[in-house]
Design brief:
Layout (H helix, E strand, L loop, with lengths): L6 H9 L6 H12 L5 H14 L3 H13 L14 E5 L8 H10 L4 E5 L9 H5 L11 H10 L2 E5 L6 H11 L7 H15 L3 E8 L8 H17 L3 E8 L7 E2 L1 H12 L5 H17 L7 H7 L1 H12 L13 E6 L4 E6 L1 H13 L13 E4 L6 E2 L4 E7 L5 H7 L4 E4 L11 E5 L1
Parallel strand pairs: 1-4, 2-3, 4-5
Antiparallel strand pairs: 5-13, 6-9, 7-11, 8-10, 8-12, 9-11
Helix pairs in contact: 1-3, 2-4, 4-9, 5-12, 5-14, 9-10, 15-16
Bound molecules: uracil (URA).
The site of uracil has 6 residues, from α9.
Length: about 425
């Protein structure tokens, strides 16, 4: 059967800075998914989009075409409203773990379809899979039953949702076309809209550990995604949040689970608690239950109860001991003074080199690997005090991890102050 368009014409249209028509977009996304547009042609088109950008009409059409490449879930039969959160990814970003049970404990069902990590940012499924026996794979029916019963699910996105994005994301990853607002926004929103949530909160990270290094880029990404969500009649808001320094005091799979459980038990680092509550308030309000304050629900212990039921429902024992790495190495503060910088990207890369992350998607991850921070920016330190502890099963990894940390921390004379953004920098509606 002959094709209605020629891929080269679509590529040259965008290469020359012209807009693609709705029909060209529908065709090229569909033809790529079924293999009628070759990988090298889509690579060229992705690069043309990267360099030339897209109008909002084009991004909306591209998102819609990717949604239509697969199935759509529908949670409207549930007895409670639904809300979901998406984070653009950061270092030590374990917020999904305490947030999902907290929002469920507030009376809102949370269908959280997550992924595995690639590169320096960890994946939610990798973190949860460090709990012995926990299963990320649920059928759509199992997901519905668990949502009705427990109210909270965190599981792997099935292959049926936005298959065009799956194929395109893998291609972008190897062609230098990931960090492009129209392509990131359509990728994230196609999956979230296809997932069928009633409301959505986007945590758009800004800083060295994030895709978006500066506020201007983060704001543009947030505004594009919020508009796409609203176009699809999903109540969508975005928070721009700080990713200059890691979130919390742990980076790495089992280490982050431990810290998340501390938050659910009423403790945990203040930045993790603050962001969890800020996002939970947005989700609860978006779902139309604004009279419940997640801070009170967290303090009541009800979120911990939901966590335990959620972990049990997916095959694991919430009381099981978490794996620990075989070896540790402590990095000491080199001088007296105030820690003014602790760079998120460098800590993320070091944790990845210790074995907590993967370089290729088929690589295994170590459950116990990662970094425990003993100080955060603003802390007053004495020379020789522990600054961080590195964890891995393979001690030959320490040297490269320590290498990644060169220049990652700055200790300034006493009285200095770190120049940091607040945890929640801005709200975009
Ligand atoms: N996450 C996604 O799902 N897609 C992107 O393009 C970037 C981050």
């Amino acid at each position: 059967m002959s094709e209605p368009y020629d891929a080269v014409e679509v590529i040259t249209t965008k290469r020359d800075g012209d807009e693609l028509s709705d029909r060209q977009i529908d065709w090229v996304v569909d033809a790529y998914t079924r293999g009628a547009v070759a990988e090298e042609q889509m690579a060229a088109l992705a690069m043309a989009i990267y360099l030339r950008g897209m109008s909002h009409r084009e991004v909306a059409g591209w998102t819609d075409a990717m949604i239509r490449s697969g199935e759509r879930l529908d949670f409207s039969a549930l007895s409670r409203p639904t809300s979901d959160k998406h984070s653009t990814g950061g270092v030590g970003d374990k917020i999904t773990l305490p947030l999902v049970p907290l929002v469920a404990a507030c009376g809102v069902a949370v269908p959280q379809l997550s992924g595995r990590g690639l590169g320096h940012t960890g994946g939610t499924l990798d973190k949860l899979e460090s709990i012995p026996g926990w299963s990320a794979t649920l059928t759509n029916e199992e997901m519905m039953l668990q949502l009705e019963d427990v109210g909270a699910v965190i599981c792997a996105a099935g292959t049926g949702l936005a298959p065009a994005d799956k194929k395109l994301y893998a291609l972008r990853d190897v062609t230098g076309t990931v960090s492009c607002v129209p392509l990131i926004a359509s990728s994230i929103m196609s999956k979230k809209i296809a997932e069928g949530t009633g409301s959505l909160v986007l945590d758009v990270k800004v800083g060295s550990g994030a895709f978006m290094k500066d506020l201007t880029g983060a704001r543009e990404l947030a505004e594009t995604m919020v508009r796409l969500g609203q176009d699809a009649r999903i109540r969508t808001v975005a928070l721009l949040t700080n990713m200059q320094t890691p979130l919390g005091l742990t980076v790495g799979n089992a280490l982050e689970v431990r810290e998340s459980v501390e938050v659910l038990a009423g403790g945990g680092p203040p930045d993790v608690v603050e962001l969890t509550i800020a996002l939970a308030r947005e989700m609860v309000a978006g779902a139309g239950v604004p009279s419940v304050d997640p801070a009170d629900v967290l303090a009541s212990g009800k979120a911990m109860d939901v966590w335990r039921r959620m972990i049990r429902a997916q095959g694991a024992d919430p009381d099981a001991a978490l794996p620990a790495a075989a070896e540790t190495h402590t990095v000491l503060a080199p001088a007296d003074g105030v820690l003014v910088t602790l760079d998120a990207l460098a800590v993320g890369v070091a944790s990845w080199r210790l074995g907590a992350g993967r370089a290729r998607k088929e690589d295994p991850v170590q459950a116990g690997a990662g970094i425990e921070l003993h100080a955060k920016p603003g802390a007053v330190l004495r020379g020789g005090e522990p600054l961080m502890t590195l964890h891995t099963d393979e001690p030959n990894r320490f040297e490269r991890a320590v290498g990644a940390l060169a220049g990652a921390y700055v200790i300034a004379p006493e009285g200095s102050r770190p120049d940091l953004l607040p945890i929640v920098v801005e709200r975009v509606v």
